Amino acid sequence: MKETAMLPHSKITSVGRVTGPLSGAEGEGKTDVFLFDLDALVPSPFGRMDDEFARYLTRFAEQRSCYLLSSSNYADVMTRLPAYVRQAFAGVFASAGTELWGKHDVLVRHEHDFSDDLYEFLVKVVQTSAFPDKCSPVLDNGSATIRMLLAGTRSTANQRKTYLAWEREHQELPAIMKEFQVRFPDHRVYRDSDTSLLIMPASFSTALVRSHILKRHKTARLISYLAPQSAASYAAPLCEALLNSDVLSEVSAPSDVSQLLSYEMRHLSGAELPVTLPVGKMAEV
Asked: How large is the angle between the packed helices 172-183 and 116-128, nearest 10 degrees?
């Protein structure tokens, strides 16, 4: 059941119990573990984290077990946030969760060999696209993912803005997705941003992100902050796998995350006691 939060851009899904609105599970024998979608932490798509917000998030991550999730590859993730933020996190789920990185190296990596037919299809898509300003490279290969961005995987914000305006008028991406799903039913294609497509094998599900976290935190209650686009696309299986004790917040701006975390920070400092609310209720922070 979804409730509208007291924030301009966010929405909290009351998967189970929401407390003040987020904490308090420790008293029930659980430990809160936080999962942050990188797209919810940056001011614009593919943007870099604001320094002031980065310092705030780091202070929180130094006191709680926190993980990052992104559909981008690990190298791209590293260009979008300061190194000290990365070091404060317990792990980074890159390439839509198909890789889990620790502080220094990769801990889990799912592998998949995409067929020649699939690559040929994507090459044909690129060649036949009517978008006039394609910039190479347009494909980014992960160990078990392919991302396609016709504006170019290294495109600037202005180039992506130009492409988005063109795509909204011509609607190529929905047609590409429809044809892909018919031709490759053993794969999944998601629109992970307004300008890009993400391809993954059907054998992989982002629900495994929760499983990987529980292997490391046996009594975890997962509190997730996801951008709406992620929750509706590649992270949908993760959302469906959440248990009654877990909490999902859909947030569209770093300012919303800051407001939601402000309660957690006050709770950690002892300035505010957790207030347990019935299922479906919410307290204003």
From this structure: 160
Nearest to 172 by CA among 148, 201, 188: 148
The pTM of this model reads 0.85
Pairing between β-strand 91-94 and β-strand 139-141 as defined by DSSP bridges: unpaired
- pLDDT digit string (tens) for 213-262? 999 999 999 999 999 999 999 999 999 999 888 999 999 889 889 888 88
CA distance 123 to 253: 35
The H or E element that residue 92 is part of is strand 91-94
Domains of the chain, each with CATH number or no CATH: 2-110+205-268 (3.40.50.1000), 116-201 (3.30.1240.20)
**Residues contacting 85, CB < 8 A, separation 6+:** 49, 54, 57, 58, 61
Residue that the structure tokens 């949908």 belong to: 236
